[in-house]
Design goal:
The complex is a heterodimer.
Chain A: H1 8-12, E1 16-17, H2 23-31, E2 37-39, E3 43-49, H3 55-68, E4 71-79, E5 86-98, E6 102-114, H4 118-127, E7 135-139, H5 149-152, E8 157-160, H6 168-181, E9 187-190, H7 191-194, H8 197-206, H9 210-214, E10 219-227, H10 231-245, E11 250-256, E12 262-269, E13 272-278, E14 284-291, E15 294-301, H11 307-316, H12 322-334
Parallel strand pairs in A: 2-6, 3-4, 3-7, 4-6, 7-8, 8-9, 10-11
Antiparallel strand pairs in A: 1-5, 5-6, 10-12, 12-13, 13-14, 14-15
Helix pairs in contact in A: 3-11, 6-12, 10-12
Chain B: E1 21-26, H1 31-46, E2 55-60, H2 66-80, H3 87-93, E3 97-101, H4 107-124, E4 129-134, H5 141-150, E5 162-166, H6 174-187, E6 193-196, H7 203-214, E7 227-235, H8 245-251, H9 253-270, H10 279-291, H11 298-305, E8 306-312, E9 314-316, E10 319-321, E11 339-345, E12 355-361, E13 368-375, E14 395-401, E15 405-413, E16 421-429, H12 430-433, H13 441-451, E17 457-458, H14 460-478, E18 486-490, H15 497-504
Parallel strand pairs in B: 1-2, 1-4, 2-3, 4-5, 5-6, 7-12, 8-18
Antiparallel strand pairs in B: 6-17, 7-13, 8-11, 9-10, 11-12, 13-14, 14-15, 15-16
The chains are: A alpha/beta, B alpha/beta.
Chain lengths: 336, 513
């Protein structure tokens, strides 16, 4: 991929261009003589992409995420096919006011690596970590050759978004194989799975009371309405429902051109119905459950939507859940 | 028949789940309901943590409709909600709020409350749990509890629970606390009684246990071998504004703050590691600390270890302040202390010889609550004179409010040819490290009460043992022939000189906040 997709005015937004060998010194200079700024860091957060169009969006995203989670941010654009080989870097401080007078900042280091290989990515990441802090990597590219053992063995939390994968079945296979190779290793957080959290919470509330709960066995169908491009998100939700019910309900996915990633979920059976509906512009979901003659309605929060919010949400949870990994075989079988 | 588990629920929550219930708030027209309780419940709803088919019933004397009550609460929520106010959410949430008018002593009012709760159950199609929240004035607790029992509302129906949450003050001395406990015990089992101390719901207070027991570097040093003294300061820069003088003048700093909040902080700092995190394991360890407090019996012991004081006219932040006795609704001849400083000793192996200095006061220079752990100085520092080491002990500071966080003070070599040392501070701040705002203490505590987790609530024996310790001091002040002196300090100062002398006698100083 040619590097010409990146224009200078965009790259200027990455901060001060600095030779890679001088990054530490440049970061130090960034803080010197500015008493009002406090550097804060709780994690190393690396974003890895192989899509040059994504670079500036990720740059904006880091600004939002760092406002919630003080971090050493590493933004890495790798263009393995680009020639001639070249590596550039930029530094900047992501700052926000605190209590009116003080400013709290995270550091961001951005890299554009043209023609590099897996070893170069590893070297770049490992050379610029804030020591002793956990390493969280959001791997936006396919889990390809650059995602290899020496890198992932050092990762504490791996963030992925399976809804972005062009060939989800193949990628889930790689993910499962990697997790098998690193038992007890990194924790996986899938943004596609996080996107369905509010739907799962709302669905749980549909069947909270004893009467509704008793009718769960009567459920026969799942209908999920999702945004185009979020099929995997919908499949993960369906897999979870089947896993929880220990059933295999018939499934219908309805794709929409616009609106939130997940827009509707209906579970239905004889005399029992649970529905979760999210309107386009609402930050709430309407929940209704019907058992026989009784219908109950509720309004619940719709959770977060933007990628920055999804990532922030993941970083707020220190411990991952084994639920997601236990579901992967189900999802994988649905993708056959 | 055991209740069916909701298979969708079990995997979603990392904490105890609030169970479907109706919360009945006694004293629903009061300040606490408007400023704290309803905004807390609203924020729980905004986070999606409220159980389904949830109801709130406000119980109070004034005549109101449901709609009128909701309107008043909406105003309070707009002003006090941590996450702001969303009209769409409020409109949905407020439908679960109802109002029930009754005198606290009127049994018929409780019977009609029972009918209302039954009506909600019928609408739900199933009985629900009931949480009774006593937010009324303390003198109303007894009649409320007796009427709840007389109306049969204290028994959960069809396997559901009925619990009570009691706001402080829980009694005004040991005798009244025991009397109240007896009334509570006659109405609710201890496991269903939740005595709230909102300090325990604060993030930093909860973090004390994590700091101590999840970090291996602190616990080995957390004893008399390495710790010289512990200081707990709770400073307020306000006086008796908003008519608070009426209540405060009957209580004083010792009863209002030390008996509950500050002794709870002492227990968290001094307790042994619990065997597990169950409510009773944690509270067993806390009670052991209170029992191990060396009693201060008689005016002499009290005079030696406790300093009480009233503020005189002065200024805080450049604003003139009147003296305590000139405050609104305060007796001009009052003998109540808006300031108290204590030296406590805990007679256990771990804490033998380590004083815990506590001070709490009104009209001090700033609002701050913090715990500081002062470590012993090293036995010998070859490159420093004793004057260089003055006030240079390692200090671990746990800031409870504001600006919650933890700081560690250490000595470092100053750059240069000479071997000079300087104190530096390593500072962790919740707000700059975690962008996400902590939930309000009441949110956490209400959810815990709904979920049946009593860890952050005081148990009967904790309360009574704390009163037993406090009563000795109160007796020396108010019932002895030669009571210790009531000292004075100008408003805006850090308290009376005698409080400084309390530490100076031990060769120590209060930490400068």
């Amino acid at each position: 991929m040619p590097s010409s997709n990146l224009n200078d005015s965009d790259l200027d937004r990455l901060g001060l261009e600095t030779p890679i060998a001088r990054i530490d010194r440049a970061l130090k200079q960034l803080w010197e003589g500015d008493e009002a700024k406090t550097r804060a860091s709780l994690i190393n957060l690396a974003i890895y992409t192989e899509d040059s169009c994504q670079l500036m969006a990720d740059n904006d995203l880091l600004d939002e995420v760092a406002a919630q989670h003080a971090c050493r941010a590493l933004l890495i654009l790798a263009l393995p096919e680009a020639q001639p080989p070249r590596a550039r870097s930029w530094i900047q401080a992501l700052c926000r006011p605190y209590q009116g007078k003080q400013v709290v900042c995270s550091e961001q280091i951005s890299f554009v690596l043209e023609g590099g290989d897996a070893a170069q990515v590893q070297n770049i990441v490992f050379a610029h970590l804030d020591s002793d802090l956990p390493l969280v990597v959001w791997w936006q590219a396919d889990l390809s050759k650059n995602f290899e053992e020496r890198l992932y063995s050092r990762i504490d939390t791996l963030i992925i978004d399976s809804s972005r994968w062009s060939y989800p079945a193949r990628q889930f296979d790689v993910l499962l194989a990697t997790m098998a190779a690193e038992p007890g290793g990194f924790d996986v957080r899938d943004l596609a799975w996080t996107r369905s959290h509010f739907m799962r919470t709302a669905l749980a509330s549909c069947f909270q009371d004893a009467t509704a709960c008793q009718n769960l066995a009567k459920l026969q169908t799942i209908q999920i309405t999702h945004l185009k491009g979020q099929r995997t998100t919908a499949l993960l939700l369906a897999a979870w429902i089947n896993q929880r019910l220990k059933a295999s309900l018939s499934m219908e996915l309805i794709e929409k051109e616009t609106g939130p990633a997940l827009q509707g979920l209906v579970l239905e059976g004889e005399g029992v119905r649970g529905e979760v509906r999210r309107d386009c512009d609402s930050c709430f979901v309407r929940v209704s459950s019907t058992c026989g003659e009784n219908t109950r309605e509720d309004l619940l929060p719709a959770d977060v939507d933007s990628e920055a919010e999804l990532v922030s949400e993941q970083l707020s949870r220190f411990h991952g859940s084994t639920l997601y990994s236990s579901m992967l075989p189900f999802v994988r079988s649905m993708l056959k | 028949m055991p209740e069916l588990e909701n298979p969708f629920q079990e995997t979603l929550l990392s904490r105890h789940r609030a169970e479907p219930c109706t919360v009945v708030i006694f004293g629903a027209t009061g300040d606490l309901t408007h400023r704290k309780l309803i905004p807390a419940i609203y924020n729980i709803a905004a986070a999606g943590d409220l159980p389904p088919q949830f109801k709130v019933v406000g119980f109070a004397r004034r005549d109101k409709t449901d709609e009128g009550f909701r309107k008043e609460l909406e105003e309070g929520n707009r002003q006090n909600s941590r996450q702001g106010h969303n009209d769409e959410l409020w409109n949905s949430f407020s439908q679960c709020i109802h109002y029930h008018r009754s005198e606290f002593e009127d049994l018929e009012g409780y019977k009609s409350l029972g009918k209302l709760l039954d009506q909600f159950d019928a609408e739900r199609g199933a009985p629900a749990n009931r949480l009774f929240y006593l937010a009324a004035a303390p003198e109303a607790f007894k009649p409320i509890l007796e009427m709840i029992r007389a109306a049969g509302l204290n028994e959960g129906t069809k396997g559901k629970w009925a619990r009570v949450v009691c706001e402080k003050p829980f009694g005004k001395d040991l005798a009244t606390a025991q009397e109240l406990n007896a009334v509570v015990a006659a109405t609710f089992a201890e496991k269903d009684t939740y005595r709230i101390d909102h300090y325990l719901g604060k993030e930093t207070a909860q973090n004390i246990m994590v700091l101590r027991f999840a970090n291996s570097i602190f616990e080995p040093n957390w004893n008399s071998r390495y710790i010289d003294n512990v200081q707990i300061t709770c400073a307020e820069n306000l006086g008796m504004e908003g008519g608070r003088g009426g209540y405060y003048d009957t209580a004083g700093a010792l009863r209002d703050m030390v008996q509950n909040h500050l002794l709870q902080l002492v227990t968290l700092v001094a307790m042994e590691p619990p065997t597990d995190l169950s409510a009773d394991s944690v509270r067993d360890e806390k009670v052991k600390v209170i029992r191990a407090l060396r009693p201060l019996v008689g005016p002499e012991a009290v005079g030696k270890n406790v300093v009480r004081a009233q503020y005189t006219a002065g200024s805080v932040d450049g604003t003139p302040r009147v003296g305590y006795r000139q405050e609104d609704r305060v007796n001009p001849e009052s003998n109540t202390e808006p300031y108290v400083a204590l030296r406590l000793m805990i007679d256990t192996w771990r804490w033998q010889g380590v004083p815990f200095y506590i001070r709490v006061g009104k009209q001090l220079p700033k609002k701050a609550t913090e715990i500081s752990i002062h470590f012993k100085k090293p036995p010998q520092v070859p490159f420093a004179t004793s004057s260089m080491l003055r006030n240079s002990e390692n200090t671990l500071v746990i800031r409870i409010q504001p600006d919650e966080g933890i700081a560690l003070r250490i000595l470092c070599k100053q750059p240069g040819q000479a071997m000079s040392m300087q104190q530096v501070k390593m500072d962790f701040r919740y707000s700059s490290s975690f962008g996400k705002a902590s939930p309000e203490a009441y949110e956490r505590l209400l959810l815990d009460a709904m979920a049946g987790d009593a860890t952050l609530f005081a148990r009967r024996d904790e309360v009574e043992n704390a009163w037993r310790f406090i009563d000795e001091i109160e007796n020396a002040w108010h019932k002895s022939d030669s009571p210790p002196v009531m000292h004075e300090y100008p408003a805006g100062s850090w308290g009376p000189k005698e409080a400084d002398d309390l530490l100076r006698a031990d060769g120590r100083e209060w930490r400068l906040l």
